[in-house]
Design brief:
Rossmann fold; two-stranded parallel ribbon; globular; Epimerase_deHydtase
């Protein structure tokens, strides 16, 4: 991870986007850019370029900026979108357009935050859309595509009240203890862990298409943090 890399964060105002922004001061080999519809209050020490635009202009911004990597943390809820069609427009149509723009701009790494259980043939509307999005991103044949499939995320959202999720976060640490074997993928995850995994995959060098669930995500988090600690130790020495 010694190579300096320009990473464009799409979906900068959500839980994962904000967490990645908070982590950025610790990553001296990353130049972080972001695109969002509204301004963000940056935490102390954060330095990044933020482009403000409506979401239909985001693919063009990728084409103009030509980043090395894109982290796509775009997502909404059916309640916020107002309908199933509105949800699909964001979680499928917009995401695929972003992937297509990344392909055209020569982006090396495209990291997409999906969901555990994503399946294009699911009877569950949410999981069906997530699966269709994964399928259509794969068809673009990006140089490297990493699909992250977290379950419940633990962290504080801003301006996004999700009562059921909040209840789930309180009980998750206990429930996670019973998630073993094939059920491990359903364990909850801290937003900080998923953010670090996304950053690490955005810096990966090998090409290909990869799907990562809980165990694989946490392995990458541990490796990523070991490398950061080793680098800090060498600088201190």
């Amino acid at each position: 991870m010694s190579e300096n890399r320009r990473i464009l964060l799409v979906g900068a105002t959500g839980l994962i986007g904000r967490t990645i922004i908070e982590r950025s001061p610790d990553l001296d080999n990353i130049t972080l850019q972001g695109v969002a519809r509204r301004e963000i209050d940056f935490p102390e020490g954060v330095r990044m370029e933020l482009v403000l635009a409506q979401s239909d202009a985001w693919p063009d911004i990728i084409s103009q900026l030509e980043p090395d990597a894109v982290i796509c943390a775009v997502g909404t809820t059916q309640k916020k979108a107002g309908s199933e069609e509105g949800f699909r427009e964001v979680d499928h149509d917009l995401v695929v357009e972003l992937g297509r723009a990344a392909k055209g701009a020569g982006v090396k790494n495209f990291v997409h935050v999906s969901s555990v259980g994503a399946d294009a043939f699911s009877r569950n509307f949410y999981l069906k859309v997530k699966g269709e999005t994964e399928r259509d991103l794969k068809s673009l044949k990006l140089r490297r595509l990493d699909i992250l499939r977290p379950s419940l995320l633990r962290g504080k959202r801003q301006d996004d009240l999700r009562p059921l999720e909040a209840i789930g976060q309180l009980s998750a640490p206990i429930g996670d203890m019973f998630m073993r074997g094939a059920k491990t993928k359903f364990r909850s995850m801290k937003a900080e862990d998923l953010a670090d995994a996304a950053i690490a995959f955005a810096s990966a060098k090998a090409g290909g298409q990869f799907i990562h669930e809980y165990d694989a995500l946490m392995r990458m988090v541990r490796e990523f943090r070991r490398e950061l600690a080793a680098k800090a130790d060498s600088q201190d020495g």
